[in-house]
Amino acid sequence: MHQSPRENMDHIDRAGGRFVTVMPRSRLEDAQLREWVQTHTPEWTLVWDRPNPRYGDGPRDCWYVHRAPLPSMEAWSIVWVWSTLLTLRQHTRRLRNIAAAIEQFEHLRRRLASSKTRLRGAPEIDLQIKLLLEQHHVGRYLKVRRVVREEHVFKQARRGRPGPDTAYLKITKRRFDVQWVIDEDAITYDRRSDGCYPLMTNDRTLTAAQVLEAHKGQPMIEKRFEQVKTVHEIAPVFLKNEGRIEALFTLYAIALLVQALIERELRQAMAREGIEELPIYPEQRQCAHPTTEQVLRLFSLAERHHLLQHGHSVQVFDLKLTQLQRQVLTLLGVPAGTF
After folding, report:
1. Residue closest to 75 by CA, chosen among 33, 22, 13, 15
2. How buried is 96 (Cβ within 10 angstroms: 0-12 exposed, 13-18 middle, 19+ buried)?
3. What pLDDT does residue 281 have?
4. pTM value?
5. What does the alpha-carbon distance between residue 77 and residue 58 come to, in Å, rounded to a whole number?
6. Could you give the residue ranges of the DSSP H alpha helices within the chain?
7. By C-alpha distance, which of 87, 99, 170, 88 is closest to 132?
8. CA-based nearest residue to 149, from 174, 126, 129
């Protein structure tokens, strides 16, 4: 049975586990702090001050934390995180989305003004407006409405050369149009909390900085889950006995543990020996962070053959390892006598 994220966290907490996760924007606590920062400045604590990861002359990558004075509804700790580069990215993305949406609405206006337009009915136009707002995520910043414009044309009541007493008829045509206005107040409101997001944890012993560090380790955990699905090719299992299910996934957990240990041992040995890269990729391309998958692929063709006669070994055909294979085994701490 599917469980909500809150139920999953409750289960982890009751089982004695620890979690650090991003609080959803739909939570009341998130909205309350974003409203609070409109008139207050949190007491931010600097955790990291690093060079820009992309541009050498760009702004520095600074990360701050602030522990919320009140816990969540479940009495879990809340730590707010603020990233300076994330602030710039979110503000730039917002302006880019607004500009792209306005360009699309200009195109829609030209379509409506054309005599060949197929958007005749109000429901069709309202649907187009809704889709454009959702596509560019600007429904909060652009207030768009459908309007009716009148075009007046005067035509002679009768044929013939016009004169002083010629009568004219006023013909009024109605066309749909769209109007929009940028909600500057909404932009200003959201900009005050740009680059901020809340982390929630049930471990009350962690400092605010440790909560951020624990959360930043999430990509490594996610990478292991990705490897379970790709490298180990885990698939749905049709097992009814819970003990067998636990046994199967225990084997997968052991495989992941061995995989992580091999990678750590190799990478630490490379750092210790001052080796930045190994030609372990196909076609001997360089690799700075070898994975267990690539290590095992390197030895996938390694074989040792025993020639037997009447059940007795006559001759052993040993494998001649390449220089790269010997180097990898040495870095992994495999004794030379074993190969």
Report:
1. 13
2. exposed
3. 87
4. 0.66
5. 34
6. 5-14, 28-36, 84-113, 122-136, 184-191, 208-216, 218-230, 242-273, 292-298, 323-331
7. 99
8. 174
